[in-house]
Amino acid sequence: MWAGRHVVLGVSGGIACYKSCFLARRLTEAGARVDVVLTRAAAEFVRPLTFEALTGRPVACSLWEPGEALAHIRLAHEADLIVVAPATAHLIARAAQGLADDMLTAMLLARRAPLLIAPAMNDEMYARPETVANLERLRAAGVAQVGPEAGPLAEGPSERPGRMSEPETILAHAARLLRRGGPLEGRRVVVTAGPTREPLDPVRVITNRSSGRMGFELAAAAWERGGDVVLISGPTALVPPGGPTLRRVETTAEMEAAVRDELPSADLLIMAAAPADYRSVEVADRKRARGEGGLSLTLGPTADILVATRGLRKPGALVVGFALETGDAVARGRGKLERKGLDVIVVNDATEPGAGFEVPTNRVTILDRDGAEDMLPLMDKRAVAEAILDRVAARCV
Ligand SMILES: Cc1cc2nc3c(=O)[nH]c(=O)nc-3n(C[C@H](O)[C@H](O)[C@H](O)COP(=O)(O)O)c2cc1C
Hints:
The protein is of the alpha/beta class. The two termini are about 20 Å apart. It folds into 2 domains: about 5-180, Flavin prenyltransferase-like (Rossmann fold, 3-Layer(aba) Sandwich), CATH 3.40.50; about 190-280 and about 300-395, Rossmann fold. The model has no long low-confidence stretch (mean pLDDT about 95). Helices cover about 35% and strands about 20% of the residues.
């Protein structure tokens, strides 16, 4: 989504400037054309050369440099999106007052594009009524804000907001701002992800190889498209995406309960989780020792969440299921689509290289209720998520 987009990254003079280097790098890697504008104080923290090398483009620092006299107006008018990260207390105050005494503030005042700011400062500076009022004024002028977050500051530990959001979080908010107005905007989206675990005793479980990555990418992509997203996840080692509300569950029964809670208000349910299909009929209340000899387990089926919750779907809600098969994937997927009352089913064959569990890529075929069948090439899971949402969005309009 960043390819061909023009982003102006404003950087003001806070210690979090070092994180802006990562942001500039990530935006450039993602295909955006990134022009960096530094305040004088920012150039004390990170030299313009660093940003120039990261973006491959000249960096603007001063209104008074000979070369291009009206660069601040050109940048303001060409940008698809402006991000200021970090936004210092001083920059926020100047922008809130409509001052235009340097390259960055003059460009902000002339802007036509949406503006996202990532405040970063000492927690007391952030809580000061002057700063609160300045931010309020900017928000009233339509400026979007990400963070700050509570956590350690350069000067020591803190539990109050002040710390700049991480580059990945800023990137996700920037994407959501840029993608405003799509069919998922304001829709309630519920995504399930990951495996579930069924206990055998207090320490042992039955689970599967699902990493949760496909569901996490779907939740992140749906949130970027403006969705109000709830991510119901079994145990995974992944860092959760910043925007969606996360509900963690352990067993298939817990996942079913969470889906029951969320489904009645959902416009879209995407069941990307791989819940355990079996559970032990008996769960021991103590850890059995190996020395006690062999162990036989009797397994019983868990609930099929899509089938069990079918009656709770809101009229008109769209439902997307996943089917991971080991052979005959498309035919079996079509059968599941009918049986479970789905609008779209995403099928993949776990035996194909690069597809399925524990890999960052997937090769899927998307089947929909109208009989369409779309076989996608091997792609990373984020690209698969976008392709699935494109298909769903087409059904939303
Ligand atoms: C080491 C150091 C760290 C600073 N960190 C911050 C900061 O994180 N946030 C902030 O608002 N100001 C910070 N300041 C103060 C700003 O640099 C100062 O207010 C400056 O005038 C900001 O200018 P600018 O907003 O035009 O970039 C820091 C100053 C120093 C010397």
